[in-house]
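PROTEIN DESIGN WORKSHEET
SECTION A - STRUCTURE
LENGTH: 666
TOKENS:
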């Protein structure tokens, strides 16, 4: 479809401007908009975070305006910035918002922007009301449009009352546009499995929670439908398309990862009636969920702007919603035509991890094979730009137990022995290891709604295999675990515990503090950690078979091994003869990982063999203890960061006295 719409009678003298507020540089919708109009010869401009985003480097872009925004700016400042851009373009330009904040800004400051830009005129407060979860809920009630049951707590006490009577799971969303940029209560649409999880999250929402708690319509009993439309003033549809959302990311509650074009005339009429009643004009992206329990379509979202997956849809004349908008605003006729059913849209950088959560269970009846493919970021059938975590778990979760809720308690996913003596695949992902990488991986999987079991003792390698008194080489800012939500950095731990503070790059973090920090993260984000050992992992046709030291066996679709270097101590062949039974902390030959307490070497001469951090750290600690020691570098020089890199980090020797040995031999 690369050449679709090339015969449309567009006005090539009227440019388009992609407007965004906030930082989301990989937005495929903006790239699609630039391509859609740019391929017709319309000059396209875009607001970008920097010069290297996908939108900024598009060959169809006539000019970019690097303008990083956060959504916390005063509206007057944002309007002034748009007017400066308008003056630089030098002619009336079609404004194309790609987020709710931009759509609200344009509607509420239409008078100031009208001279420089072209855009549909609506009641100024309508886009804000539609973008607000509470405002949309009220509009649905006013006009008899079904929507999920919802609560809007005004205090923590309201949340507690809701938790006592609600039916879980529920979904939490930020209530208002702009609030998600300035004071977000949740990182995005958040699945909440029970009262305990809800109350724990609510403690961070402040005295006036800015959230909506919404009924969760279970995937097994629902279908997700999307409607993309462009309405003329008064609500008459210029272009209107329907399709089925097959997968989203995060699972079941996030952006569309895979969708199909499916005709649904009844839903199209329902949408057009609602738009006419509220007086909406312009481009809209709507999410409906068909509830099989009562046979109703329930409106989840009415986004008063272009949807990221709008390029899935165009009619037989090559008109999509953006082309329809440009034609209408420039006084041209908008050709009609049917939508070609069966096209598929895939956002290739997020659809692979989404597959993990969606395999198994009830299949959407429209998600068939053999449909024409349309990629979100690149036009290739082969996956591209796949994140590392997606590659790690892409094979997992092919069969999720019927009725099992993502992110539920680990006991819900225990394997059961089948007639052949094996176990059923009952866990999509098993994570082995509870150090920084294992905890971070598990936290991200849980936040994405993926069932996961995690095994190991929290931070055990750092606690037992690192020498007491060791200082981290990384700066405090670079020593935090990567977590899916805020509030879990090393600085957050220090504020909660009273340790530190470790704020500047010249502060050194003791390993003991780092261990306690990791254990704090585990208790908050991975509370279901199972402190047992995995004794074996065997490959089988449908995944992996794991055996625990408790005797339990279970199946998993994917296994993430995050055990670090435990068990991989290297003994040079030249020293093997002196330790036929292997290195030991009390023997003549030992490995640095066996010395948490170097006092075992009291009164003995020590030769430190090595050229990296462990060797230097051991030598320094021995020197500070006043014990004789010798250094034997197994390289031309100690392996240490270059002078340029060393200024940005501090290691074991930066704030300690020199580890110069009594005698140094290569």
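SECTION B - SEQUENCE
RESIDUE ASSIGNMENT:
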């Amino acid at each position: 479809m690369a050449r679709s719409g090339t015969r449309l009678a567009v006005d090539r003298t009227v440019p388009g401007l992609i407007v965004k507020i906030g930082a989301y540089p990989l937005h495929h919708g903006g790239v699609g908009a630039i391509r859609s109009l740019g391929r017709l010869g319309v000059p396209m401009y875009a607001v970008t975070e920097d010069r290297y985003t996908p939108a900024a480097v598009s060959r169809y872009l006539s000019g970019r305006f690097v303008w990083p925004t956060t959504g916390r700016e005063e509206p007057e400042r944002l309007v002034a910035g748009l007017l400066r851009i308008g003056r630089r373009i030098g002619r009336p330009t079609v404004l194309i918002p790609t987020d709710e904040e931009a759509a609200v800004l344009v509607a509420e400051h239409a008078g100031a922007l009208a001279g420089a830009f072209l855009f549909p005129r609506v009641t100024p407060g309508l886009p804000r009301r539609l973008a607000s979860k509470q405002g949309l809920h009220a509009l649905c009630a006013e006009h008899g449009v079904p929507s999920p049951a919802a609560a809007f707590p005004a205090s923590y006490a309201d949340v507690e009352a809701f938790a006592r009577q609600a039916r879980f799971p529920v979904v939490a969303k930020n209530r208002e546009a702009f609030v998600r940029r300035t004071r977000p209560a949740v990182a995005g649409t958040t699945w909440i499995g029970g009262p305990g999880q809800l109350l724990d999250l609510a403690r961070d929402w402040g005295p006036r929670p800015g959230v909506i708690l919404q009924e969760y319509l279970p995937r097994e009993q629902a279908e997700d439908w999307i409607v993309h439309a462009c309405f003329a003033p008064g609500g008459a549809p210029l272009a209107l398309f329907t399709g089925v959302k097959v997968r989203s990311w995060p699972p079941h509650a996030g952006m569309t990862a895979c969708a199909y074009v499916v005709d649904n005339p009844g839903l199209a009429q329902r949408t057009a009636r609602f738009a006419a009643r509220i007086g909406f004009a312009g481009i809209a992206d709507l999410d409906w969920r068909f509830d099989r329990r009562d046979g109703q379509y329930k409106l989840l979202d009415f986004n008063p702007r272009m949807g990221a997956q709008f390029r899935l849809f165009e009619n037989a004349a090559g008109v999509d919603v953006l082309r329809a908008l440009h034609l209408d605003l420039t006084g041209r006729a908008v050709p009609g035509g049917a939508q070609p059913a069966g096209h598929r849209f895939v956002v290739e950088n997020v659809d692979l991890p989404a597959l993990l959560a969606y395999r198994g269970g009830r299949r959407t009846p429209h998600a068939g094979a053999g449909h024409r493919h349309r990629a979100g970021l690149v036009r290739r059938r082969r996956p591209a730009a796949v994140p590392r975590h997606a590659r790690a778990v892409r094979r997992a979760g092919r069969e999720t137990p019927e009725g099992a809720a993502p992110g539920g308690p680990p006991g819900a996913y225990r394997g059961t022995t089948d007639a052949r003596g094996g176990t059923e695949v009952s866990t999509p992902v098993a994570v082995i290891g509870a150090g920084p990488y294992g905890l971070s991986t598990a936290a991200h999987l849980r936040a994405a709604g993926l069932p996961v079991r995690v095994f190991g003792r929290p931070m055990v390698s750092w606690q037992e295999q690192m020498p007491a008194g060791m200082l981290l080489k990384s700066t405090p800012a670079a020593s935090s675990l990567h977590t899916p939500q805020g509030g879990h950095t090393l600085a957050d731990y220090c504020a909660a515990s009273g340790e530190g503070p470790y704020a500047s790059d010249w502060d050194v973090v003791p390993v003991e503090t780092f261990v306690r920090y990791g254990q704090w993260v585990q208790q908050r984000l991975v509370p279901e950690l199972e402190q047992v050992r995995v004794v074996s992992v065997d490959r089988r046709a449908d995944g992996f078979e794991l055996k625990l030291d408790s005797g339990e066996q279970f199946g998993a679709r994917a296994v993430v091994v995050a055990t670090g270097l435990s068990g991989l101590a290297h003994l040079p062949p030249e020293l093997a003869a002196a330790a036929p039974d292997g290195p030991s902390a009390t023997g003549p030959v030992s490995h640095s990982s066996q010395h948490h307490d170097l006092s075992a070497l009291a009164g003995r001469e020590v030769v430190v063999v090595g050229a990296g951090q462990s060797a230097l750290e051991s030598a320094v600690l021995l020197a500070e203890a006043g014990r004789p020691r010798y250094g034997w570098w197994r390289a031309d020089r100690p392996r240490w960061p270059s002078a340029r890199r060393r200024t940005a980090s501090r290691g074991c020797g930066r704030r300690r006295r020199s580890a110069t040995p009594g005698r140094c031999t290569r």
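SECTION C - NOTES
The longest strand covers residues 237-249.
The longest helix spans residues 75-89.
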